[in-house]
Amino acid sequence: MSHAGTLAMIPALGYVAGKVAEHKEQLLQDLNAALSTLLDTPIREMPVQLLLQILAALVLAVAVLVWYVRKAAAKPKPVYLLDFAMAHPPDTWRFTKERFVPANSLNTRFNPESLDFLGKMLERSGLGNDTYTPPWLVNEPIVMDIAHARLEFEVTCFTAVQELLNKTGIQPRQIGCVIVNSSLFNPTPSLAAMIMNHFKMGSKTINYNLGGMGCSASLVAIDLAKQVLATLKDTYVLVVSHENITNNWYPGNDRSMLLPNCIFRCNGAAMLMTNKPTEARRAKYELQHLVRVNLAGQDRAYRCVYQLEDENGDLGVRLSKDLTAVAASALQKNMVTLGPLVLPFSEKFLFAVNLLKRKFSGKKVAPYTPDFQLAFDHICIHSGGRAVIDGMQKHLALSDAAIEPSRAGLYRWGNVSSASVWYVLSYIETYKGLKGGDKVWQLSFGSGFKCNSAVWVAKKTFKDTHTCWTGFDPAKMWEDLNALTATLAAEKAAKRAAAEAAGQTLPENGH
Ligand SMILES: CC(C)(COP(=O)(O)OP(=O)(O)OC[C@H]1O[C@@H](n2cnc3c(N)ncnc32)[C@H](O)[C@@H]1OP(=O)(O)O)[C@@H](O)C(=O)NCCC(=O)NCCSC(=O)CC(=O)O
């Protein structure tokens, strides 16, 4: 029954309760008399009508019991996130900003304009000085073979999984299913098989490998884990999210394909999910909602993150300038489903009034964006790039404090693809901590084009210091980011003034 139906029954129940209280004495006397007659009368002597009434009551009781048991069995069992751990590559993989252009100069195929573009984009990207790249991509000789791509996966993800097993005390043989997502590196045997082989998992463990699913694939993997947990009893599902830099380093001169070299960096996240009731108390979170939106049916959205060969045959991923606009439209669609599930009544009401005004007022009314900060205590937005985060902050009208974890994710780790929502959550656990009952929103975007949301509820009050944030200084980050914002604003103003002087008008984005 819907909540509205339940609410509507309250006055009726109140009326019945009032009447019962009013005639309590009489009712008790009648019941007593009926019971004594019933108990003193052998079944053979009972009137047929009474027997039928007893039978009907018994049938009704059994039907209610069966309905209740079936309803309880059909209710999805809770899905818990026991814990998660992040990859933290070795210090020898640190890739400072000063090294970026000299290291890229080792690739003799980059022309001077490309090197200029790479340097300029890095400066404006919102990445800090301390991200990680496999050393074989930025030292001579440059190697981009499959053995090194595998090595990158081992260094990042095996360590994250090992740390997760150490934290939880779960043995590899207890894991019933392994799910790995990596968009651009899908060797055979699969990455999921590599995990099973390294950790010597049992032959009954099932595995899945999600390829080509972009930066929002971690939440697709979580959704798959949820579905697996609905079919396997009392088990653990290990989810590993990774994007490979070695297999994705573009050596050519197409600007839109060079952009990933500027912003994508080494990463890995390992999550342990379970449906075991005995783990309910120590689990960090319970999954409350998972909403997936996929715009693959629309050409512009489908093509805006696209792997292809350039005109010289070099393979890379082209990032379209449309990406932030497409992400905003995917977000809008996701919010339409997510909003009613999570927003407080006041926000739903304002949204509905706005909708009616837009439909029937005959005037141009701007759409109302609900305040999602009223629905969630913590927000983890995919740190896909400075422009992506800026766009999301604007669309969702988020405060600097609410968006800080995502900015920190980009600044400290770069665009770490689908693992980003976990680096962001680990920042929240490390710096802010959670209270039991806190709601966390993970929001990811990626090729397809997809926008996925996961809502988690903290099961306890805790703080967890993740090693991937050791030594990080949020104040220094804000100092750098504020300086960058000021530089970009000054540049934009100068461009606009020059254009106006020349009698031209620049579009909103300044180009
Ligand atoms: C790259 C930026 C840091 C640049 O910042 P700026 O403030 O300088 O931006 P801007 O718009 O003024 O652009 C500066 C210059 O870069 C060029 N430029 C910008 N975007 C470009 C693109 N996609 N392809 C080619 N050129 C591009 C502009 O034309 C301009 O060139 P000129 O100076 O010549 O006029 C920012 O635009 C950004 O963060 N973009 C989003 C990156 C992104 O797509 N991330 C999502 C990754 S995909 C992902 O995360 C999901 C997935 O993979 O599945």
From TrEMBL:
<dbReference type="InterPro" id="IPR016039">
    <property type="entry name" value="Thiolase-like"/>
</dbReference>
<dbReference type="InterPro" id="IPR013601">
    <property type="entry name" value="FAE1_typ3_polyketide_synth"/>
</dbReference>
<dbReference type="InterPro" id="IPR012328">
    <property type="entry name" value="Chalcone/stilbene_synt_C"/>
</dbReference>
<keyword id="KW-0012">Acyltransferase</keyword>
<keyword id="KW-0812">Transmembrane</keyword>
<protein>
    <recommendedName>
        <fullName>3-ketoacyl-CoA synthase</fullName>
        <ecNumber>2.3.1.-</ecNumber>
    </recommendedName>
</protein>
<dbReference type="InterPro" id="IPR012392">
    <property type="entry name" value="3-ktacl-CoA_syn"/>
</dbReference>
<feature type="transmembrane region" description="Helical">
    <location>
        <begin position="50"/>
        <end position="69"/>
    </location>
</feature>
<keyword id="KW-0808">Transferase</keyword>
<comment type="similarity">
    <text>Belongs to the thiolase-like superfamily. Chalcone/stilbene synthases family.</text>
</comment>
<dbReference type="Pfam" id="PF08392">
    <property type="entry name" value="FAE1_CUT1_RppA"/>
</dbReference>
<dbReference type="Pfam" id="PF02797">
    <property type="entry name" value="Chal_sti_synt_C"/>
</dbReference>
<comment type="pathway">
    <text>Lipid metabolism; fatty acid biosynthesis.</text>
</comment>
<feature type="domain" description="Chalcone/stilbene synthase C-terminal">
    <location>
        <begin position="380"/>
        <end position="449"/>
    </location>
</feature>
<keyword id="KW-1133">Transmembrane helix</keyword>
<feature type="domain" description="FAE">
    <location>
        <begin position="73"/>
        <end position="359"/>
    </location>
</feature>
<keyword id="KW-0472">Membrane</keyword>
